Amino acid sequence: MNISYNWLKDYIDLDISAAQLAEKMTNAGLEIDEVVEIGAEVEGVVVGRVRECRALEGSDHLHICQVDVGGEQPLSIICGAPNVRAGLTVACATVGAKLPGGFIITSKKTFGVVSDGMLCSEKELGISDEHSGIWELPEELELGADALTAAGIRDQVLLVDLTPNRADCLGMLNFARETAALTGGQVREPQLDYAESDEQIGRLIEIRVEDTDLCPRYCARLVRGVKIGPSPLWMQNYLRAAGMRPINNVVDISNFVMLEMDQPLHTFDYQRIAERRIVVRQATEGETMQTLDGKERVFDGTELLICDGSGPVCVAGVMGGFATEVTAATTDILIEAACFKPASIRRTSRSLGIPSEASQRFEKGVAAADCDKAARRAAQLMVEYCGGTAVQGVCDVSAGEFIPRKASISAGRVNRLLGTAYTADEVKEVLQRLNFPIEQQGELLTVTVPAYRQDISIEEDLIEEVARLKGFDNIPQTLPAGASQGGRSQLQLLTARLIELCVAHGLYETVNYSFISPREADKLQLDAGHPWRDNLLIANPLSEDISVMRQSLLPGLLNTAARNWSRRNLDLRLFEVGSVFQPAAQQPEQNQPEEVRMLGIVLAGSAEGGWLGAAAEYDYFYLKGVVESIFAGMNICNLCFQRVTEPYLHPGRSAELSLDGISLGVIGELHPQAAAAYELEGRVLVAELALPAVFINAAANLPLQHDLPRYPASTRDIAVIGDSDIAAEAIEAAIYEAGGEILRSVKLFDVYQGLPIPPDQRSLAYALSFRHAERTLTDKEVDEAFNAIVAALRDRYGYKLR
What we know:
- The chain contains 20 helices and 41 strands.
- By secondary structure, the chain is an alpha+beta fold.
- The strands form ten sheets. A seven-stranded mixed beta sheet has the order 28-32-33-37-36-35-34, with helices on both faces. Strands 3, 4, 5, 6, 7 and 10 form a six-stranded antiparallel beta sheet that branches. Strands 12, 14, 15, 22, 23 and 24 form a six-stranded mixed beta sheet that branches.
- Strand 34 and strand 35 (about 650-660) form a beta hairpin.
- Helix 10 crosses helix 12.
- The longest helix has 19 residues, at about 780-795.
- It is elongated and about 125 Å long.
């Protein structure tokens, strides 16, 4: 909603700036996104009058004009606008003037004639998109005066971001009431008095409403003898500031009243209404009508229509029809002010694809009690600015009397909910600022809610009004009764610690949608029976690309990597901590899908190089080291890596990661075909690990402290050769078992395959460290332990010393 500050001041006297008002409104719950200065970029454009206009020799469309701008000599200006003529009052940009976009006016020679300025269109001044000709100003404006100021164009517009419950502020008058409540001002209501003829409207038009549930009220007033022409300049300015294009006086008055009173109107050419009757009814299936946009509309039977004696003439609350359109020849205007069921208008507007300012208001709900007030306002303006005569009375068809809502409020209840200490008088004062009628019995206040405030129906709504007008900042910070001290749970603390460790290892956090495309399974080369193909379908997806719940973090991470890769960000270190959703079929003991927290990692490209060495491409061992280091930071060191076969992972360069016999997930290199499906080149490393078991283990494994060793260690290196199919982890476990209590550490420092070692074998070299806690080991004790290790590897796995 655009609020013109100039227009607002027609209803209330203000001694604060637009920016100050915007701050007050935002603090009171009506958020002002921005205050826009209309005409701020325009300087040096003045009011001028064309004294002489003649064709420019050598041109088929240009004219040389003598323009009086209030100086001693007129300016000679060349203009090509089709509407330029002698006697026209114009906006003249003199030499040195500034126009929107930083354009500076200079003298320019055309066909040998110097032009000392420019006659401007509305578009060139940033007023509107109209550029079919130069802007024609009223004759009474002072020559030489700033054109935008003299025409009332300079203004400040508040861009209001309304919440759905405050649709009342779509009307300028209601916004003025809100302003008065915040500033202490008084609202000036528009005058609705006008003279009426002796004709009775009830003899001239018949109104029938077939379903008062869909149309609770329908009012019609008639103005005869109107003359179609331009609306007054001030009205055009207000409409432009609100984002609407002026059309003519009748259409502009209809739009003006809608913006002023939050009540959409429709105007019919009375003489074109067949049989002089209006029927409000639902459409019949297959019925058609041509709307004002020239399109033939076919109805399915759910729409609400305004019909005359021959058929539909308007889609209720959405768009008028061509048959009764107001034209330049129209002399008699029938004004419609009605209230329609919001759900019906919303459905019709969506199904026909015709959103409008009117339908937006009807969808949010208008005050049925105020319909005739808006019709009277439109009639008063048409009498004043269209030269018309209002017919006596109103045709008013309604579902019954509109009884105002009432709600009660007490200071005690206010204070219990807000934690304040307001008195009954303070609460009453706030509600009086809103101009709400109040009946008081002791501390209890009974409020009659105005029809335009449809957001207020219960006591809590009134308490909200007290809170926001007293100021949210003035509500003391107190804990609710019985509230416990807040804090992070252990799960939240462990999650935060994990994220910190990932960031510390140079990974960048991403947050992806929990919804993915079912085609992601094809990109990952998954088999037909893979559990990830058992999709959890979303009931109302926005599109097929986000139609199923994710069972893995990898699709989101890989799509993020692909997006970065396409923008030549080639070195990627991404991670995500999020939930995946496993169908109940995968969790037989669960009736509902299970939500599991996971850690996902994607590496692509190369690690950063430096003076110590060149950049190296990421590989499986780099990722393995990152995972081990992150888990070590959470006091988890007993990880087990075993070969795994997954269709989306590279065979031989991937592993299943487990902890105390519980599988956590997989790490490894993405299969080249899967990488190609995501348009990624080179090695792409991925890891996806379930966090529940990790967090349980991390919570149980507190960091342990050890005294510094009192006795020296004895170190030995061992290199053994054997079958390459035997996991290095199994070899390491056998070494620990055979080495006994004195073997303190085993570190693999070399792996070799190649001549002279047979093709199906490999060499593994380990550094062994022996130490006794209470004495120095002898060479004999170390030799015995070393020989026991050699024998165990030989007997169990056929490994022998190299």
